[in-house]
Protein: Probable dual-specificity RNA methyltransferase RlmN
Amino acid sequence: MKQDIRKLTAVQLKDWFTKNGEQGFRAKQVHEWLWKKSASSFEQMTNLSLSTREVLNANFEIRPLTVDQQQKSNDGTIKSSFKLFDGNLVEGVLIPALRNDDLDRMTACVSSQVGCSLTCKFCATGYMDRKRNLDAAEIYDQVVAIDRQAKENYDAPLTNIVYMGMGEPLLNYKNVLESVDRITSPDGLGMSPKRITVSTAGIAKMIRQLGDDAVKFNLALSLHAANDQKRDQIMPINESNTLEALGDALAYFYKKTGTRITFEYILFYNFNDTLQDAQELWKFTKRVPAKVNIIEYNPIAEANFKNTDPQTLDKFAGYLESKGVIVNVRRSRGKDIDAACGQLAGKKV
Ligand code: SF4
Structure:
């Protein structure tokens, strides 16, 4: 089997070229084709000689993901099912957002694993098995494909990327950080890391690691309950990563990076939507500079949770705001095509 050329670092690529009697600067050209121009075949590398392209073809392959299916929601959201080289499928979503009738944001939501090993009770992916981690190129390719959709459908490039699709990004730490590097590097897509948010269900040890690695992107914690007993019920990862441990890890992350945390909170009807829950959330947010995104829930067939009602939501958000917490209420997008948060499960149309 030929080697996947995108698994080589720039240095390894250069070594390979010099060992094989090719000029070193060719490695830089190839690297640029792979990560800056997102080439999906050696034939596209037109500034390389035909013989160099043939040598590359004989030794390596590029494994681009392909769009298997694409669905457009009534609200303009586009969900794609991407096929990986081994036949596995993952999903990614383009979410265009308007402000005053103008396009304000073009957000790509990408997956980091095929399936997920965490079994959050409200999430469709949590009912699938985790099959494998995505490599950096597979995450990068989702961004490239969704950026292409943004340009084709809305004549605008991506402005933001969230790692909030299938999988727990911090359980695929190395590849996720490598993909961010390819997306943000001047030798790659050159996007600002401040436009990227990695969302975790809460792996305290890896949140600390992000701090030690002084990452420049944003971090979101899917909190959904600021009370261990309730959080244990909906997110079993909380049993080994308690709120106390997560709070300490987030404080450490903030100390090392200076980046404010985003807490994601779904208001489930009759579960975590009382004023006492709001009070617990407020107390937890005080541990670290943070803002709260309240996310509308999208019921899934596998579970019985329901979205709270608008009045309760207003009271909950109002309480937090009265305490000085920055609160955004995020309406759900792409519900009609199962593209909303927690609904990605590789369902065939
Ligand atoms: S919410 Fe995220 S971490 Fe939890 S099961 Fe779903 S994909 Fe996995």
Observations:
- Residues 116, 118, 120, 123, 125-126, 166-168, 201, 222 surround iron/sulfur cluster (CB under 6 Å).
- Residues 228 and 242 are 6 Å apart (CA to CA).
- The first helix runs from residue 10 to 19.
